[in-house]
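User: Please predict the structure of the protein below. I'd like the answer in structure-token form so I can feed it into my own downstream comparison script.

Assistant: Understood. Taking the following sequence of 136 residues as input:
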Amino acid sequence: MNKKNKIMETNKQIYWKKAIELMRNGEKIEQSAIDFNDEQIHWLLVQEFNKYGIRVSNELIDYDDDNIDFSDIPELNDNNLKNGTYKIILPISCDYEISEWIKNSKINYNMLVNNFLKSVYQSVLQIERKELTLIK
């Protein structure tokens, strides 16, 4: 038995892989008894920990980003942008008073801002079209 195992036994710590094995066999394990050893843990195993009520720190979760399959995501093209089927998230800032009003009124600010900007955009387009018509 190496020195690390002796320390883990003394502190009643269980290595995370052993904890999963024990939980799969019906043992109840306390969160504080698990030693994650600052190792990256695959997100599927984290889901298993979650089923047993054990939370894994975000810093330890390996989301396996290199193997994400993007094949089902449609390609972005100019038509998506023109007909509005593609949305872009824009961070906005506003005065505290406005922010509180939005929260207290339970206003869907994404819809509010989008509708407002769409109205302004359409108005500007109409003005530009009228100006072009007047110039001709």
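That's the full token string. The chain has six helices and four strands.
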